[in-house]
Design a protein that fits this description.
The chain is an all-alpha fold. Helices cover 74% and strands 0% of the residues. The protein has 4 helices and no strands. The radius of gyration is 14 Å and the shape is globular. The mean pLDDT is 89.
Length: 93
């Protein structure tokens, strides 16, 4: 099997990421991460942009990398979601 970056199959990897996120975080922490992203967007836009660019950059690059064992390449995206969740937990206090 040939492995190429930007070799197609982005939809397959994107679906794999979307299916893996609830397994890794469950649904409640994902809702808290949305709250954190909203809080940062409204009050701390520079921090929001930094974390969002980490998340978007990781996903944009990784979904275009056509390998079977892609899950470890999504780690930065998971860390970014966890950072948003941390800020969401601060907002929920």
């Amino acid at each position: 099997m040939d492995v190429f970056v930007f070799g197609g199959g982005a939809a397959k990897q994107w679906n794999r990421f979307l299916n893996a996120v609830p397994v890794e975080f469950y649904y409640a922490p994902l809702l808290v991460s949305l709250l954190g992203a909203w809080r940062l967007l409204m009050h701390e836009r520079r921090i929001f942009m930094f974390i969002f660019l980490l998340l978007a950059g990781c996903i944009a690059y990784t979904v275009n990398y056509s390998i079977n064992d892609i899950d470890s390449y999504f780690l930065l995206a998971y860390v970014s979601l966890a950072m948003f969740a941390g800020f969401g937990a601060l907002e929920a206090e």
